[in-house]
């Protein structure tokens, strides 16, 4: 692999020289600004060897560097070892930005040229980069991977399927009408939709073009009098084709979107610059552009009653699978022969037994001891290690069910622990509980409540660099915006009906990691003279390991929360369990 990466860099640099380009930037995204992308667009992974979901590679004629966030610092360092890539730890004070680094490396050139593929970078990002790197000329119409990636996978052609009203809860016609009302109120008559989960939600369709994400490669152009769906027609079975006809949605070739927006006949076309790629935005006449926020992410984030009930049903089945797994775990580890991969396989198999299971919602993270400190660790045959009856194993997993998407993390003690492990575990649990108990005004944002999960850790000098919570799709992407709970400023408001995770963690490199995660639903709390207040309903149903807890560190309120949660878990799940599983759950949820 290491030699292959160098060979790829050599071929790429030859193309760069031929095109007169001094630096080329490879993001992690696709033409739809997806977090997770189809194999065809994994160019950053192909050119660097780093396979994390977030990162940007920059290659100059003499240097190479890769930026990624704290979730991947350890994994990236391992995967880049032996290559010429320099790891840039994003958001740390001493790490130069991409534009700063490029400016430094190209300072010897009188007229430096920077290449980017304008189809896989958003308009907002490229405009910012062009402004920061005003010493360089940018070329935005080149995809060198089309030349140097000889065995590049094709764009997926998997079939699209209907997502019935039984699970969607709102007809496509209703969603289109709401979008059109928004457009009228914002002085636009059209909307270009490029985000794949937004298209799937709007049309009540699902696909399998992206691993773990039930979406399909396409574009959508909504105007006041038409809806155009840009997609490879091979992907449309007869029932989907007939459905689109009934919904007055016309089908156009996927590649035709550029010409259609160039020749847009309406007055004003709304495009979200943080979502739509640079080439599509710049193809539209400036007099016809409105750059603004798409209404769909917020509409999609607020789940209707059918979707909320679907989440509860999915979490029930997921909880049954989790209890079966947890009851099996310790005896299996004590018997020997278990590894990180075998734990992953067993948990996935138990989920697959549940009705409406459609697959996992992300690649399962099973990190034993030191691997638990690698935030987005994924075991491979090369890294897989035996799991033994001592220490901590961190398991972050989830499933796609036809009525909901799940995301849960549990850290489990497999035997004897150090005092440090117990203390860190209890601090993470305190943060998890405190956020779950939070009450906040309607419209507050996640950045305003993030500190609630961190306060106990901060008091003892601990912190974690990832977000505390993200939205979860309704049989859609496991990571869903626009709202988040994190330290960085994210102004998207929180409203009743939104799902969000609660997942604080602490990671001690080379030792162990702890994360505890439930998925929550935001619901009304009360109305006071100061306005409407909201609270969380915990959707996830699975016991939290009590054996590592230092009980004296929990407040009476936190202890009450934990006992009440475990009582609910037992009462809800026990009727569906076998006798031995029910007995295990009774012990696991025994009040402290």
What does this structure look like?
This protein is an alpha+beta fold and 592 residues long. It folds into three domains: 2-148, Creatinase/prolidase N-terminal domain (Creatine Amidinohydrolase, Chain A, domain 1, 3-Layer(aba) Sandwich), CATH 3.40.350.10; 161-297, Creatinase/prolidase N-terminal domain (Creatine Amidinohydrolase, Chain A, domain 1, 3-Layer(aba) Sandwich), CATH 3.40.350; 302-542, Creatinase/methionine aminopeptidase superfamily (Creatine Amidinohydrolase). The protein has a six-stranded mixed beta sheet, with helices on both faces. The chain has a six-stranded mixed beta sheet with strand order 12-11-10-8-13-14. β11, α10 (238-246) and β12 form a beta-alpha-beta unit. The longest helix is centred in the middle third of the chain and has 31 residues, at 305-335. The model has no long low-confidence stretch (mean pLDDT 97).
Helix content: 25-40%
CATH architecture of the largest domain: Alpha-Beta Complex
The CATH topology of the largest domain, please?
Creatine Amidinohydrolase
Give the low-pLDDT segments: none
Residue share in β-strands: 15-25%
The overall number of domains is 3
Within the largest sheet, what's the order of strands? 4-3-2-1-5-6
Instruction: State the end-to-end CA separation.
Output: 51 Å
Count the DSSP helices. Answer: 19
- Specify the biggest β-sheet: 6 strands, mixed
- What is the count of β-strands? 28
Broad shape: globular
Radius of gyration: 25 Å
Structural class based on helices, strands and sheet pairing: alpha+beta
What's the pLDDT, averaged over the residues?
97
Query: What's the name of the CATH homologous superfamily of the largest domain?
Result: Creatinase/methionine aminopeptidase superfamily
CATH class of the largest domain: Alpha Beta
């Amino acid at each position: 692999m290491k030699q292959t990466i160098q060979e790829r860099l050599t071929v790429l640099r030859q193309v760069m020289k031929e095109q007169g380009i001094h630096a080329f930037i490879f993001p992690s995204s696709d033409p739809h600004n997806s977090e997770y992308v189809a194999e065809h667009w994994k160019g950053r992974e192909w050119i660097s060897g780093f396979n994390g979901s977030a990162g940007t590679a920059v290659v100059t004629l003499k240097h190479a560097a890769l930026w990624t966030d704290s979730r991947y610092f350890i994994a990236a360092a391992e995967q880049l070892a032996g290559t010429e890539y320099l790891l840039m730890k994003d958001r740390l004070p001493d790490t130069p930005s991409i534009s700063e680094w490029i400016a430094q490396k190209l300072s010897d050139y009188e007229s430096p040229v920077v290449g980017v593929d304008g189809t896989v970078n958003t308009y907002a990002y490229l405009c910012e980069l062009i402004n920061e790197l005003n010493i360089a000329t940018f070329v935005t119409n080149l995809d060198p991977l089309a030349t140097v990636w000889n065995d590049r996978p094709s764009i997926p052609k998997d079939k699209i399927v209907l997502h019935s009203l039984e699970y969607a809860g709102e007809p496509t016609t209703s969603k289109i009408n709401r979008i059109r009302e928004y457009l009228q109120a914002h002085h636009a008559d059209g909307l270009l939709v490029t985000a794949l989960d937004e298209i799937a939600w709007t049309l009540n369709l699902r696909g399998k073009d992206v691993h773990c994400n039930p979406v399909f490669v396409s574009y959508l152009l909504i105007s006041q009098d038409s809806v155009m769906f840009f997609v490879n027609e091979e992907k449309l079975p007869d029932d989907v084709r007939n459905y689109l006809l009934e919904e007055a949605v016309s089908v156009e070739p996927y590649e035709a979107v550029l010409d259609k927006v160039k020749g847009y006949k309406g007055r004003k076309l709304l495009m979200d610059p943080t979502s739509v790629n640079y080439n599509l935005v710049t193809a539209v006449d400036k007099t016809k552009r409105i750059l603004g926020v798409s209404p769909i992410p917020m509409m999609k984030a607020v789940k209707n009653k059918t979707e909320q009930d679907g989440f509860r049903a999915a979490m029930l089945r997921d909880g049954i699978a989790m209890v079966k797994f947890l009851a099996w775990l310790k005896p299996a580890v004590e018997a020997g022969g278990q590894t990180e991969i075998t734990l992953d396989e067993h948990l996935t198999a138990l989920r697959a037994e549940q009705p409406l299971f459609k697959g996992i919602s992300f690649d399962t993270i099973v990190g034993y001891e030191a691997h638990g400190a690698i935030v987005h660790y994924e075991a491979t045959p090369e890294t897989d290690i035996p799991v033994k009856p001592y220490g901590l194993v961190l398991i972050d997993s989830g499933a796609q069910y036809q009525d909901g998407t799940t995301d849960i993390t549990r850290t489990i003690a497999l035997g004897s622990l150090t005092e440090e492990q117990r203390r860190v575990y209890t601090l993470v649990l305190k943060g998890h509980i405190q956020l779950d108990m939070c009450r906040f005004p309607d419209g507050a944002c996640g950045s305003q409540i993030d500190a609630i999960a961190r306060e106990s850790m901060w008091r003892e000098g601990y912190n974690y660099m990832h977000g505390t919570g993200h939205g979860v799709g309704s049989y859609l992407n496991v990571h869903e915006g626009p709202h988040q709970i994190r330290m960085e400023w994210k102004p998207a408001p929180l409203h009743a009906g939104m799902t969000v995770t609660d997942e604080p963690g602490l990671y001690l490199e080379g030792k162990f990691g702890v994360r505890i995660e439930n998925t929550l639903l935001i619901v009304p709390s009360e109305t006071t003279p100061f306005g409407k207040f909201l609270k969380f309903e915990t959707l996830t149903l699975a016991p939290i390991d009590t054996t590592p807890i230092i009980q004296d560190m929990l407040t009476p309120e936190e202890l009450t929360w934990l006992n009440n949660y475990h009582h609910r878990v037992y009462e809800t799940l026990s009727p569906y369990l076998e006798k031995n599983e029910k007995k295990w759950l009774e012990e696991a949820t025994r009040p402290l």
